[in-house]
Specification:
single chain, alpha/beta, seven-stranded mixed beta sheet, three-stranded mixed beta sheet, 8 helices
């Protein structure tokens, strides 16, 4: 069995069709695959994942270690209280907890519903550094990220990150111990905020505490491409070059691409 870990988080309102592209395209990655499944048990999902050799972990505790079985999925209602249990944030607490009891060489954390693997990404993930993947935009030039930066960490965030590129929290990896520490810090930095702050926290940390331990990748490295900024017209990208990249993220933002990729993996 591989000693690398590929891990992500899903909610019980997903169906096998929603995650099939991630499940099938990741089969050729050199990894042990695990998905956190939030909220009520979904036997259909669990059976589907286990039939494809994906282990399922059911999170059952909150920030304080109290039993909790229901977690918020809506970033639109994030506030100072809800942020502690928002799946986008708390997944990092539960990944940290999982890694406390499991040892791997490398760990790759990805989103699930909108991620496709063209080839094994672990060959490009550093043995010693966090591998972060750029959206190829700057905080100063994109309103969503700039607004979340300002709301979540104020003028300190603006001073530290406004002139920096945005690195996507939906695809990052590295050596197990370093990723474990980073997950704890992302969660602690993201809770108690007015808006969803997983990406804000990730970017702040890799540009400060972890700056010398981070390998910053862009499109030129052919590792991951994030397509929302392309759809928004902020980044020029030739979609005919997608096969060069190990990971395609946010493919569902392009209707024709969504159709062709899901037709390939959902057949």
């Amino acid at each position: 069995m591989s000693n690398n870990l590929l891990i992500g988080a899903i909610s019980s309102n997903y169906t096998p069709i929603d995650i099939r592209t991630w499940v099938v395209s990741s089969k050729n990655t050199n990894s042990h695959r695990v998905l956190l499944l939030y909220n009520s048990l979904n036997d259909e999902l669990i059976q589907y994942l286990r039939s494809h050799d994906v282990d399922v972990v059911i999170p059952e505790f909150d920030f304080w270690g109290n039993e909790k079985l229901t977690f918020n999925t809506n970033t639109g209602v994030c506030n100072l209280d809800v942020s502690y249990d928002l799946i986008h944030n708390i997944r990092f607490l539960h990944i940290w907890s999982y890694l406390q009891n499991h040892s791997y060489d490398k760990v790759l954390i990805t989103d699930v519903k909108d991620v496709c693997f063209n080839k094994d990404p672990f060959e490009q993930i550093s043995d010693t550094h966090i591998t972060a993947t750029s959206e190829e935009i700057f905080y100063s030039n994109e309103n969503w990220n700039k607004e979340h930066l300002h709301y979540n960490i104020g003028i300190i965030g603006l001073a530290k990150l406004l002139d920096k590129q945005v690195y996507n929290v939906g695809v990052f990896g590295g050596p197990c111990e370093l990723i474990n520490e980073l997950c704890a810090d992302i969660y602690l930095s993201a809770v108690g905020r007015k808006k969803v702050a997983d990406q804000t926290a990730f970017n702040y940390l890799i540009q400060t505490k972890y700056k010398n331990q981070t390998k910053f990748l862009g499109l030129q490295d052919n590792f991951a491409v994030h397509l929302q900024v392309v759809v928004n017209g902020l980044v020029n990208f030739d979609l005919t070059n997608l096969n060069r990249y190990s990971i395609i993220h946010q493919y569902d933002r392009v209707p024709s691409l969504k159709y062709s990729i899901e037709a390939k993996y959902n057949a």
